[in-house]
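Worked example 2:
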Amino acid sequence: MAKSKQNFTHQVIYSEKHHIIVPTPKGWARENRNYFSNYSFVDDNVPRTKEIEEQLDKLNFTKAITAEMVVYHEFKN
């Protein structure tokens, strides 16, 4: 029997100029295309969520997982 895939809501949360920004990982990638030079962001030519999450890990975003969500967040001191 095949293992069922868990479906989560994925969010990225960060602050910018005293505003809280909450895009999806792909929305964050569109706003930060410089990290994904192999993609044109036209139609389906966008990085997969797993690749985006790997980049967020490299940037030291904190990852939190609940039963319903995967959240990456970054708040600067």
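The chain has one domain: 9-74. The mean pLDDT is 87.
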